[in-house]
Amino acid sequence: MWKGGSKEGWLIFWTPFDTAGLGKLTELELLYLIDWTNQGTFPSELGQLTKLTIQVLDGNSISGTLPHEVFELTELTNLNVGSNQLQGTLPPALFSRLSHLQWIYINDNMISCTIPAEVGQLSDARKLEFQNTKLSGTLPTEMLMLENLTSLVVTGTSLSGSIPEELCDKIYQKEMKCYGSPPCTVFRVNSNTTACHGTSLCGCDCGPCKPN
């Protein structure tokens, strides 16, 4: 089943289809491939759709790593590749080249790395969802540069360390919330979110940090 097309500038699929000719739809601005159960790797043809602003590929069985072709989609504001089987790392180019991204959903994949410092280049970022991945290390201090961030979800990762005090201040100023089970304390104000339960993060409302 599909809706839209290249003339309308958007395309939505809910059923498997051959992506071989997808790269010819160069006028596409919005692409949804929902539960399309692809059994292969990330379609490299998507790199030819340079006018895309929204790309949603969640709920599939995409494996492998994010191909370098994705980093040619410099107009993207929304990238959703959640609930797949992606492995590898978050390349710095994901953040440095796709600097217009506002919403990033990498959740429920097997991504295994630290969060690159280049995340600080996403000046328009509003929502980052990295939950249920194999991310490790600490939150980079460059996240302090994300002035528009309203939601950060890192539950179910191996992130650890203290959250920078300056980031805590930003969270409180925006009345963001931390929710879940210990070490998180329930703090609900509005739709803005920071979620840290299931991690070793501390600070803010994610539980006190142990003295060195």
UniProtKB/TrEMBL annotation:
UniProt KW Repeat keyword: yes
Keyword Repeat: yes
Chain coiled-coil ranges: none
Gene3D superfamilies per UniProt: Ribonuclease Inhibitor
InterPro entries hit by this protein: Leu-rich_rpt (IPR001611), LRR_dom_sf (IPR032675), LRRC69/RLP (IPR052595)
One Pfam short name: LRR_1
Keywords associated with the record: Leucine-rich repeat, Repeat
Stated name of the protein: Leucine Rich Repeat
